[in-house]
Fold this protein.
Amino acid sequence: MPIAAALLALGCGGEGGAANAAANPARAAAAPEAAASAPEPDLSAVYAADAVDVALLEYAIGMPSRLPAGPTVLRLSNQGFEMHNLKLVDPASGEVLWETEADVNTGEVRLVELDLSPGSYTVVCDVAGHDSRGMLMTLTVEASPAP
């Protein structure tokens, strides 16, 4: 099944910008030049209207149970207080068809691009028994209607 993924991780910048600038004025003076030369990250995909929101909570996965087949962007958002992951599993064979490359940290938002094939999948977080506590659901991917 062609469930391929390209993973984009989004993070936040450094900590304590104002405090660091006050503690080190020479560094603060250089900061605007460094900021001007650094390219702005492209966050347009984070706000893409067609992305499917996937909330990772304690202990539930908040996402639609039905999606259309084809290219899909998932916006994973860990809204819980523990780390989570996400896997798509073939329920018949138990084969993992796709999974996050690393656990999703608390507060992290991650975009995932998949090409979903029609069928039924188990969506699961298997961090430290989260699946047995409710982070498990069935996803049905429906074939697109013929034009």
